[in-house]
Amino acid sequence: MRFAIFGDIHANLEAFQVVLTDAQEQGCRGFICLGDIVGYNANPRECLDLVRQLDCAAVVKGNHDDYVATSTPLNHFNSLAQIAIQWSREQLTAEAKNWLWTRPLVAFYDSLTLVHATLDDPSSWGYVLNQLDAAASFTWQKTPICFFGHTHVPRLYVHGTTVAGFPFKELRIEPNKQYFINVGSVGQPRDGDPRAAYAIFDREAGTVQLRRLPYDIERTQAKIIAAGLPLKLAERLSLGK
Ligand code: ZN
């Protein structure tokens, strides 16, 4: 069985639709969402509905999901994120917010652990940016593979005798190693490549493949501007950062 593993959709409908079409064409029958369905871009309702229709094997909660679902003060977010979260709160029904709010911080499926940010302290929304950060998560990882998101930068961390981190395109899972894999962002990539990112996990073949897909960025940008969201949120999509 092949699984599409995606996260940080951030209400970017055009990017998400391209990802789902590709996943179907690539024979994915399972879907796993790593959180941050909403925030930043202009289609939170539509993206949330699509995730719910997929009947995902697991959906974990991201920090934007958490804050959009509540009225918690947003002091520690930068102003762009604050404006977008505030706007997104007005777009979702109480039922939709409740669904977001009730997603788990960590989920388990098959041989997989799933988390948005870190395994050592998932509710603090820390960033795994290097081997040291990854090592802290590995101390809590009990399965061979954990998929995560949050940084919007695809990255592979491998725990063999030491912890190493690399950019990756495709990998084969080896026994006696653990893998902590960031699948990048569907809706707001930040690694300098503006194309939507997600990964395909092939359980039987024991492979993980990173996919990058162009989408209609101009359409997403026009929607952001029409919604009255900050222009910078539109501009950054072309830059991939
Ligand atoms: Zn995010």
How does this structure look, described?
This protein has 241 residues and is α/β, with parallel strands linked by helices. Helices cover 32% and strands 23% of the residues. The longest helix has 13 residues. The mean pLDDT is 97. It binds zinc ion. Zinc ion binds next to loops.
Write the layout of secondary structure elements.
Elements: E1 2-6, H1 13-25, E2 28-33, H2 44-53, E3 58-59, H3 63-69, H4 79-91, H5 94-101, E4 106-109, E5 112-115, H6 131-138, E6 145-148, E7 155-159, E8 163-166, E9 170-172, E10 178-182, E11 196-202, E12 207-213, H7 217-226, H8 231-239
Parallel strand pairs: 1-2, 2-3, 5-6, 6-10
Antiparallel strand pairs: 1-11, 4-5, 7-8, 7-10, 9-12, 11-12
Helix pairs in contact: 3-4, 3-5, 7-8
The structure holds zinc ion (ZN).
Residues 8, 10, 36, 62, 64, 150, 152 line the site of zinc ion (ZN).
Please, what is the average pLDDT? 97
Helix content: 25-40%
CATH architecture annotation name: 4-Layer Sandwich
Shape by Cα distribution:
globular
Lateral strand order in the biggest sheet: 3-2-1-11-12-9
Number of domains: 1
Specify the CATH homologous superfamily: Metallo-dependent phosphatases
Q: How far apart, in Å, are the first and last alpha carbons?
A: 33 Å
Number of E strands: 12
- The Cα radius of gyration reads 17 Å
